[in-house]
Each structure stands twice: as structure tokens, then as C-alpha cells.
Specification:
- This protein has one domain: Clam (outer membrane lipoprotein receptor (LolB), chain A), CATH 2.50.20.10.
- 13% of the residues lie in helices and 49% in strands.
- The chain is built from three helices and 15 strands.
- A 13-stranded antiparallel sheet has the order 6-5-4-3-2-1-15-14-13-12-11-10-9, sandwiched between helices.
Amino acid sequence: MQRHSLREVKTAKEIVERADHIRFPAEGFQVDIRITTTSNNDDPEIKEYRVLSKGNERTLLMTTAPVIDRGTILLMRDHDLWIFLPNISQPVRLPLSQRLTGEVANGDLARANYTGDYEPTLLRTETIDKETYYVLELKAARRGVTYNRVLYWVNQSNYRPYKAEFFSLSNRLIKTCLYQGYQETIDVERPLQLVMIDALNTDNRSVLDYSNMQLRNLPDKTFTKDYLKKLTK
């Protein structure tokens, strides 16, 4: 494979940035997420969350259902992630890569944008169902990000994300994510349904349905441990 020029590397970054802006607003926003996980013939497991996000550095993830988990809050600031549990005085630090529920890791919701966390390279283009896609390789820019490596398909004509494949430190495929359900939300067609499929057993999957996305003016105090201690009392 030929080496890519500096211009092509810059283009790869631009593609990832544009795709990130389609997935989520750059401004502060709020969104509700319902995650339905199925595994073989087991009954579906449903969990619901409300996410408050400000850029790619501050995220608040509140569990709203089931009732037994209500009051659990994840706080991401910069590169640190903390969990606040009802009736426990001190927050506990968590890795972004740890499983949240089903096929969903903490970082899939707490730090979902790729800009800044990964160094992208444009590998090639592919045509799928008469649509042309950029295929990018994203390598972790630092330690502690959710995935070590990502292969990312982005539509060439409109920069919509189509698919992502996530790999472990040992370069093992962990799961695939499909970006679906595009609807106009805050003036942009955004994917409001994500399907995450386990690489070893495709019967294991989690469907993330996004709803009620709205812009919000979120003061910095919203993303502080002292503020969240009040919420969990």
C-alpha cells in the first residue's frame, strides 16, 4: 500500500470531524438513550439513560431505568471517568473500556466522538449498495481510550457514519457498530439508532435508540464531583 501524503492525513482528520458533527452537536446538548440487549433466546434487557454532554471533554450519564439502577451517575471530565452510586460517599474511577451494559462500553456513551482520541488514516474507498464510503483506520492517540483501534466507514457524499469495527489491544475484533435510523435532529440528519453486534456471537447485540435530543446551556458546575454528590443524596 502506498504511503499517504500529509494532505491525505489532514483529509482523514477532516472526515472524522465531519462525521462526529453529524453524530452529535458540537454545542452542549441532552439526549435520552434506550438500550435493548438480546442474547440468544434470553429475554431482552432494557436500560435507559439521560446524557448531558458539552464538547468531547465533559459528559454526564444518568441511569433512569430500571428503577433499581436509578441514581447511578457516570461523570467524564477530560480523560477521567467516575461513577457515583447512591448511598456511597466517594466516587469510583472506571476505565472507558469497561462494559456498561450488553455490548456497550462506558466510553460508547461517555466519550463517543473520535476527534482527538484517535489518529486517523484514510485506507481506501469501498462501494456498498451503490454508495461510496471512505474506510479509515483510527489508532488510539493515547492510552486509556475506549478502543485501541477502529475501522470506520463514512459516506463519501455526505460524511454520514455507516459502520465501525472495534479492536482490542491484541488486535482482536470485539464488535461491530451499525449507524442507522437517520432523522433530522437539530437541523442535521443524525443516526438515532446504533446496533452493536458481538464479533464472536452475532446473536449478542445491543440496540441503542436515541430520542429527545435538544441543545442545552450546561454550566461547568454541572460536571463537577461536588455537584453530583448533591444529586446522589
